[in-house]
Amino acid sequence: MTTWWQKISTKYPKWVVGGSVAVFLLLGWYGLGVFDELSDSTSMNALHTESAQASEIIAKEFGTTPNSQIVLFTRQDVSLGDADSALFQATVNELLTPLKDQSSSIMTFSTTKSENFISHDKSMTYAIVNMDGESKEIYQTLRNFADTADQSKLTITIGGEAALIEEMNQIVTHQLAVIELISLPILLILLLFFFRSIVASLVPLGIALCTVLGAFAIARFLAQFIVIDTYAVNVITILGLGLSIDYALLSINRFREELTSGVDHAVKRMIATSGHTIAFSGVTVIACLLSLLVFPFDIMHSIAIGGAAAVATAMATTYIVLPSVLKLIGRRIDAGQIWKRKKKTDSGSGFWHRIAACTTNHPAISLGIGLGVVALACIPLFQFQPGNMSYKWLARGAESQQVLRTITEDFPSSTPDITAVLTFPEKADTSWRLGLACTMTEKLESIDNVQSVLSATPVSSELPCETIQMLSTNNMLPAELQAIQKTYMRSTALKFDIFLDATDRKSEETALLAIRDMTVPEGELMTTGSVAQFYDSNQAYYKAAPWAIAIICVSMLVLLAIALRSFVVPLQAIIVNSLSLVISLAVIVGVFQLGWLNNLTGWPQVDGIVLAAPILVAAIAFGLAMDYSVFLYARMREVYDETGDSTEAIRQGIIKTGPIITAAAVALFVVVIGFLSSSVLFMQIIGLGMAVAVIVDAFFVRLVLVPAIMKLLGRHSWR
After folding, report:
1. What is the DSSP string of 355-420?
2. Does 326 lie in the same domain as 243?
3. How far apart are CA 498 and CA 420, in angstroms?
4. Which CATH number belongs to the domain containing residue 351 in this structure?
5. Measured between alpha carbons, how far is 379 from 585 in angstroms, rounded to an integer?
6. Which among 519, 591, 641, 708 counts the fewest CB atoms within 10 Å?
């Protein structure tokens, strides 16, 4: 393959470049439509769990999910009285009239008599509106309702699942465009500083643009068959820009080194050396990303496949397009020099030589200091707590986030902590179903830490179960109870909204497991809701994590052993690369859970970290760290094969790749650091985690730990 492409690139460069331009123009036109094809789901809940199955049953039987749409009403006219007054509720019901024909059910204080619908200061109430359809359609309906309603007495704001999804997509997409506009000029400045040439600096940006457009096209195509969400598009952008620039830096730098022997020789040599390195580097990153597929989460699958597509596209553009571009440019690669580039020498001088000499001359001291720094940096990890999604993780400033924050902070309880669904064979006898509902409600309310239960026979009705059964049989049930039964009872299922008074996650978990262990008179009881989803998701993460780690470690050992012809170096690479991840995760805990920079940045402090965030950071950052490892170790291997001197191989590896890895790391840092400006906490965590991992790996692991360990192992490194 390499020899064949060497000939093609040098013999037919115009055809390759021309064909590539045409292809990427077509891909760009198609790929920019990816934003219209993104999934209308932002769920981070585990698939194939009890909570997932229960949600599916509820959606099928009741036409809704536990995460329904929310309409919040805030008093403007004090003459309406308190939110639980007849006049206030009459006004709410009147305003809700346009939505009644477009919804399957509407729950309010009027229909439930639940104090959960009344704010602490009695100035606000809300309605839970259950609607069928796509999130875009639901959001537009609610948006039109809020915009056209008379808000002179009550201010109307909307939230819930549909509003959350649409506002998140809009905000993340907009911020992605802004970040790119900021990142690209900074990247150009960095490339100018590194190459000192306008032409050489523009080439990587052109390759990066082609990569991103190509990856967007692949993502749009895949979106027809699998979930591709806004998070995946963000990761595609990060990896597309970052890796294509990394690979272009490596390739162009090697091309310039070999240029003294002629353009054709330089292109062929670049493909034979850098091309080989990029191939193995890209495959290692893809392997790390695909390990995410073992986690039963749509978000993981979306990012894994989207990210792998971006890496593959970066490899393709660098390997296929770049050699022909450099063949056409030739010695003009240094055209437009800002200042004259100094000739590289291997004499014992220069910054990178001094770094290499320092660590190889004092390997034990360097290793001891390095491990001490790692140990100190890891202290925050001892306070790590897994967290659940809350309003703090949503797009700050968005209406849906404000609604959820208000309901969470200003109301007794916003949504049920647990939703249980009891399924059974179809029963025509309404009285029998009501009796079962009454029995189950009493059993559920008797469980420790259960505060209240909403069901087809609510306690708030102030009617005994027997009376409700009789009235229902005789078609004499009050309208409000009929509405409640419509919400909570079907011919084959009963639904129960359970509110807890638990003070910690342990108490919530205890209540959940007690509900799941209940003996039911007939049928099957399943649970979902925030507590159940949190428990099931964490269990899924814990079960899948060892498999993901095993896949990464085995694939890295095999790939690097093939690339470097050594078993010791791959093992060493896995260990040292893990250290940068540990530091990165410690910083995430310190900043977002412990609130180190809260006063300075205004970032929200959370009680725990949603496990999806550190897992994604670990997989992506580890892949990038292995990417840099391949750059460094491949060059060391090349020198060692030529000289047989392990110390010289270490020094020359650092001298030759130090500037490249540093420039590549800084370039990637610029791309990911832009996500810190996002209003979405999840993206901020990914941005900070990857930024820290990349910088620590490039400036600490690569310059201190790797050469120190390699020196101590000596020739044993290459066994």
Report:
1. HHHHHHHSHHHHHHHHHHHHHHHTGGGGG--B----GGGS-TT-HHHHHHHHHHHHSS-SS-SEEE
2. yes
3. 8
4. 1.20.1640.10
5. 11
6. 519
Among candidate residues 249, 225, 218, the one with its CA nearest the CA of residue 312: 218
Cβ neighbors of 284 (< 8 A, separation 6 or more) are 555, 556, 559, 560, 623, 626, 627, 630
Residues pairing with 267 in the sheet: none
Of 541, 539, 544, 573, nearest in space to 556 by CA: 573
Domain boundary among 343, 358, 385: 343
Q: Does the residue 103 lie in any domain?
A: no
Long-range pairs, 349-352, Cβ under 8 A, ≥24:
350/655, 352/654, 352/655, 352/658, 352/659
Q: Are 93 and 74 in contact (CB under 8 A)?
A: no
The pTM score is 0.82
Predicted confidence band of residue 347 (pLDDT cuts 50, 70, 90): very low
Question: 161-170, 204-213, 462-471, 615-624: lowest mean pLDDT where?
Answer: 462-471
- Among the candidates 297, 323, 343, a domain finishes at 343
Q: What letters, b where the CB count within 10 A reaches 16 and e where it falls short, cover 101-120?
A: eebebbbbbbbbbbebbbbe
Q: Which amino acid, residue 645?
A: D
Whether 575 is covered by a domain: the verdict is yes
The answer to whether residues 251 and 369 belong to one domain is no
Residue 514 confidence (pLDDT): 93
In a domain, 431, yes or no: no
Classified as helix, coil or strand, 496 is: strand
What is residue 66's predicted lDDT score, i.e. its pLDDT? Answer: 46
Secondary structure of 91-155 as H, E, C letters: HHHHHHHHHHCCCCEEECHHHHCCHHHECCCCCEEEEEEECCCCHHHHHHHHHHHHHHCCCCCEE
> Do both 685 and 703 map to the same domain?
yes
pLDDT tier at 526, thresholds 50, 70, 90: very high
Contact present, 245 and 204 (Cβ < 8 Å): yes
Which residues, other chains included, contact 311 with Cβ-Cβ below 8 Å and sequence gap of 6+? 239, 243, 282, 285, 286, 289
Could you give the number of structural domains in the chain? 2
Clarify whether residues 366 and 225 are in a common domain.
no
Nearest-5° angle of CA 511, CA 58, CA 409? 55
Percent of the chain whose pLDDT exceeds 90: 12
Residues 694 and 598 in one domain: yes
The pLDDT of residue 475 is: 60
What CA dihedral angle connects 600, 604, 609 and 615, to 10 degrees? -70
Q: Is 510 helix (H, G, I), strand (E, B) or coil?
A: helix
Note whether 322 and 359 are same-domain residues.
no
Residue 308 structural domain: 1-36+196-343
Average pLDDT, the chain: 83
The DSSP annotation for 639-682 comes to: HHHHH--HHHHHHHHHHHHHHHHHHHHHHHHHHHHGGGG-S-HH
The residues pairing with 419 across neighbouring beta strands, listed in sequence order, are 497, 528
Tell whether 217 and 354 lie within a shared domain: no
Residues 268 and 317 in one domain: yes
Q: In this structure, is residue 43 part of a structural domain?
A: no
Q: Which two tokens stand for residue 431?
A: 């009285």
What pLDDT sits at residue 304? 92
